[in-house]
UniProtKB/TrEMBL annotation:
<feature type="domain" description="PDZ">
    <location>
        <begin position="96"/>
        <end position="160"/>
    </location>
</feature>
<protein>
    <recommendedName>
        <fullName>PDZ domain-containing protein</fullName>
    </recommendedName>
</protein>
<dbReference type="InterPro" id="IPR036034">
    <property type="entry name" value="PDZ_sf"/>
</dbReference>
<dbReference type="InterPro" id="IPR001478">
    <property type="entry name" value="PDZ"/>
</dbReference>
Length: 264
């Protein structure tokens, strides 16, 4: 359980963001009501579960998933083991970027607040932001000239749109809630997947993975560095069938977090 990030840091604040009046904005992504991620983390199966702490009330537990046998109980080569795996090619860590406006004065992003943090919930293909290396799920830490404390994403986008800046200097945290699994597709068209530490997690038919671009309640973002969550089912199926017999890297994100960023 220690291998995956703790979602409790995204707890929704009890006090609402203060109102703003100088620029009208009918839309809002303020996160001021539902504590959807408070007191939760996700386990080795990618399931959101309550934190095991004395000071956090325990909500009713969901029905447990079928127990998956450990690596030691599995036949040889049934589940992928940690070996030399193709890198995910998705940057991580803190990064400074400069994002210029395009000819229409836009940078091509949507920003959403989650608790005390701001995330990119949409990055337009071939936009200035995309060309600068920004991607879905990146966390915005700073933007030069803007105070990001207690400001909604829609309000921040309004301020940026009305500013005189020709470019925006940002510090972002790349993909803080993505993580990698390792997988292998067998001749029966099943995807067996494990943690990078070698713990078997389960298996699923690849047509189900391709249909929803998901592995159980994990959103599949990329396969060996190729972004797939925006591709058609047939395209994802082609990538998976081409990998039969090979060990692959699966970049995933909790489905609850993915849906939360896209819910508006």
């Amino acid at each position: 359980m220690a291998h995956y990030p703790n979602l409790a840091a995204l707890a929704i604040p009890a006090d609402p963001c203060p109102p703003y009046e100088d620029i009208a904005d009918s839309s809002s992504d303020d996160d001021c009501g539902s504590n959807v991620l408070e007191g939760f983390m996700y386990d080795d199966h990618g399931e959101l579960v309550p934190l095991q702490e004395d000071d956090i009330p325990m909500p009713p537990m969901p029905s447990p998933l079928p127990v998956t046998p450990s690596i030691s109980d599995l036949p040889p080569a049934t589940y992928p083991r940690p070996t030399t795996v193709a890198p995910s090619n998705i940057a991580s860590g803190k990064q400074d970027v400069i994002v210029p406006r395009d000819a229409n004065g836009k940078i091509g992003v949507k920003i959403t607040r989650m608790g005390q943090r701001l995330f990119l919930s949409y990055v337009e293909v071939n936009s200035s932001a995309a060309k600068s290396g920004l991607g879905f799920g990146d966390q915005i830490l700073t933007i030069a000239g803007f105070n990001l404390s207690r400001i909604s994403g829609s309000r921040l986008m309004n301020l940026m749109a009305h500013s005189q800046c020709s470019e925006f200097r940002m510090t972002v945290l790349r993909r803080p809630y993505d993580f990698d699994l390792i997988g292998q597709v067998n001749s029966r068209l099943e995807l067996r997947y494990s943690t990078k530490q070698g713990k078997a997690l389960g298996s699923v038919k690849i047509h189900r993975v391709a249909r929803n671009c998901a592995i159980r309640n994990l959103k599949l973002l990329a396969i060996c560095g190729t972004v797939v969550f925006n591709k058609k089912e047939s395209q994802v199926m082609t990538i998976l069938t081409a990998s039969i017999g090979h060990q692959i890297t699966l970049r995933v994100m909790p489905m609850s977090l993915y849906n939360y960023l896209l819910r508006r």
